[in-house]
Design brief:
The protein is of the alpha+beta class. About 55% of the residues lie in helices and about 15% in strands. The two termini are about 20 Å apart.
């Protein structure tokens, strides 16, 4: 994100909502890293947090697949509602 000549950091909430959105249909860690514009070192704490709080599940297929849970979908809907409210004011 660029605003003028300075870079704006994304908030933790924005990153979490992006990860939840990416994982709706299931995603590998590599896909999450690239689509959320993160790196492999920074993704691990987010995946641990989301897994421990029941917001994503981990499935073992050929690779580990992360999938948003119904609870995660509810949180994602709340994030989107808040973002819509803030952008309309």
């Amino acid at each position: 994100m660029v605003k003028g000549d300075t870079f704006m950091k994304r908030s933790r909430d924005v990153i979490i909502s992006q990860i939840l959105d990416i994982c709706i249909k299931g995603a590998s860690k590599t896909r999450i890293v690239y689509q959320a514009n993160l790196n492999f070192r920074t993704i691990n704490p987010y995946l641990d947090l989301l897994t421990k709080n029941g917001l994503i599940n981990v499935k073992k297929e050929q690779n580990l697949i992360y999938e948003t849970t119904p609870r995660g979908l509810d949180l994602l809907d709340n994030f989107k509602q808040i973002q819509n409210e803030l952008s309309s004011t």
